Amino acid sequence: MSRRDEGAARPPSAESGAPGVAPGAAPVEAGRTGDTASECRNCGAALRGAFCHACGQEAREPPTRLLPLLHVLAQHATGLEGRAVRTVRTLFILPGALTRAFVDGRRAAFAHPVQVYLWCTALFFLSHAYAPVVRLDPDTGAITSSLSAVAVGTGVSAATRERVRERGLSGAEFVDRFDAVVSASLPALLVGVVGAVALIMALLFRGESALMHTVFALHWAAFYFALDVLRQLVARAGRPGVVVSMLGSAVALIYMIVALRVVYRRGWPSTIARGVVAWITFALLLVAWLWGTSLLAQRLA
Length: 301
Hints:
mainly alpha; 9 helices; globular
C-alpha cells in the first residue's frame, strides 16, 4: 500500500481537524442519553474526566428520554436543596462555622458567602415591603426601627410638620413618601454593613487576611438581616416591639462573640472584649445611618 493510500485509510484525528473526536476515539452522536463528548461543547477544551477543567461544565450530555431526564433533574434539585438547607442551618445554629469552613478550603458542602448574603438580603427586602424597617407613626410623629433597640431621634420635627401642612399632604401621603425615601436608601445600608463590619474586624484582628474579614462580614450581615426578619414576624404576632428589639440585639451580640471565637480562634476573654467593642461600634454606625436616613426622608418626603 502506498503512502497516499495509507493516509486515506488512516482514521481522522484531533490534528486532522475532525471536531469533537480525540485520537483513537469513536465519534459521539450528540444528544444521546449518557453520551460523553471528547471536547467540551461549551468552550471546546479537551475533556479529561466528568467535568471540563477549563469552564467546569459537565462532560456528560443530559438524557433526551423522559424518565432518565426526570431522574437527572431530581438529582440536581435534591442536591441544590440539600446544600441550601445545610448552609442555612449552619448559619443559624453554628455561629462562625460557615466562615471557618470557607477560609479552611472546605467549600463544596456549602453555598458561597455571597449567595448566602443575597438570600438573606432578598428576604429582608421582601419583609420590608410589609413591615418597613424605619416606621413613622402619622399620629404621634414618632420614628422607630426594627434594626435598633435605640429610638431614632425624637420624631418628626416641627419644621417638617409645618411643611407638610403647607403642601396640603395628609398623614398617610407623608408616610408613603417617607417610606419611599427610606426604601431608596436600603441598598446603601446593605452594602455599607458588609464594608463596615469587615473594616471593624480588620482593626480588631490585625494580621488576619482580608478574605477572612470579608467572608465574616458577609455571613454576619446575612445573619443580622435574617434575624431582623424574624424580629418583625414576632413583633407582628403581638409581642411588644421594644422588648423584641432588645432581645434580638442580645441574641446578635452573643452570636457575634461565638462567631468571632470560632473564626479568629482567640481566647474567650480577648474574644468577648473584642466582640463587645465590635458590637457597640456596629450599633452606633447603625443608629447613625437610621438617624441620617430619617432626617433625609423628612426633608425629601
